[in-house]
Amino acid sequence: SQKIEQNSEALNIQEGKTATLTCNYTNYSPAYLQWYRQDPGRGPVFLLLIRENEKEKRKERLKVTFDTTLKQSLFHITASQPADSATYLCALDRGYGNNRLAFGKGNQVVVIP
Amino acid sequence: SAVISQKPSRDICQRGTSLTIQCQVDSQVTMMFWYRQQPGQSLTLIATANQGSEATYESGFVIDKFPISRPNLTFSTLTVSNMSPEDSSIYLCSVVGGGSNTGELFFGEGSRLTVL
């Protein structure tokens, strides 16, 4: 069956350190993968997109990698700040086109001052 | 970017009733998506709503339970019919930003439904 797995345990990290989140998928062949941020009571907000032929993408303090062999994406927040505390969702293309994405359950990050 | 307004933001409903959620976008869009986010679960796509045609439902979702209207390019409604406690969830409307087929999704703030 198709699965997208993100760590269900919250990641508690000291301010200034790098937070690393993992997204593993099974039985998908995504052309691209996206990461979203979701704050409590809010809708998800898009952060980054990485395509299958890209190894790494950066945006300010964020970095995403995509390994289609391992079927895994890593999401890094460098120099983390308390304002980075949120849930981060991995989403991937299901191969049907038209932006019909499949989402992981998300991984909560808590940045401790 | 797109700004999406959803109504209601939350509601408490009785079992067996139906509720319609409205989604208004500040620009014309071809496709609108309705997602459900149940407690502790991932965002799950219910259906894709295109203006001028029937909505396309994902596996496990049917029109009788989740009828959708798309009267124009900026507005859509999702009705949750004959509700049961299992329908307690956050329902989110989203649209694609940008012109490419791999564009980011913009989401509304969600409608949190509690069914008693």
Describe the 3D structure.
The complex is a heterodimer of chains A (113) and B (116). Chain A is globular and about 40 Å long. Chain A has no helices and eleven strands. By secondary structure, chain B is mainly beta. In chain B, the strands form two sheets. In chain B, strands 2, 4, 5, 6, 9, 10 and 11 form a seven-stranded mixed sheet that branches. Chain B has a four-stranded antiparallel sheet with strand order 1-3-8-7, with no helix packed on it. Classes of the chains: A mainly beta (113), B mainly beta (116). At the A-B interface, strand 4, strand 5, strand 9 and strand 10 of A face strand 5, strand 9 and strand 10 of B.
What's the quick description here?
Chain A is mainly beta.
Task: List the topology elements.
The complex is a heterodimer of chains A (113) and B (116).
Chain A lengths: L2 E4 L4 E4 L4 E8 L5 E7 L6 E7 L4 E4 L2 E6 L4 E6 L8 E8 L7 E3 L3 E6 L1
Parallel strand pairs in A: 2-11
Antiparallel strand pairs in A: 1-3, 3-8, 4-5, 4-9, 6-7, 7-8, 9-10, 9-11
Chain B lengths: L3 E4 L2 E4 L5 E7 L5 E7 L5 E8 L5 E2 L10 E5 L2 E6 L8 E8 L8 E3 L3 E5 L1
Parallel strand pairs in B: 2-11
Antiparallel strand pairs in B: 1-3, 3-8, 4-5, 4-9, 5-6, 7-8, 9-10, 9-11
The coarse silhouette of chain A is globular
Number of helical stretches of at least 4 residues of chain B? 0
**Biggest sheet details of chain A:** 6 strands, mixed
The helix content of chain B is under 10%
SSE string of chain A, helix = H, strand = E?
Answer: EEEEEEEEEEE
Spell the H/E element sequence of chain B: EEEEEEEEEEE
Quote the average pLDDT of chain B. 92
Distance between the termini of chain B: 37 Å
* Number of contiguous helices of chain A: 0
For the sheet with most strands of chain B, the description reads: 7 strands, mixed
This entry's quaternary arrangement is heterodimer
Q: Shape of chain B from CA axes? A: globular
The SS-based structural class of chain A is mainly beta
The gyration radius over C-alpha positions of chain B equals: 13 Å
Kindly state the percentage of residues in helix of chain A: under 10%
* Rg calculated over all Cα atoms of chain A: 13 Å
- Beta-strand residue percentage of chain A: over 45%
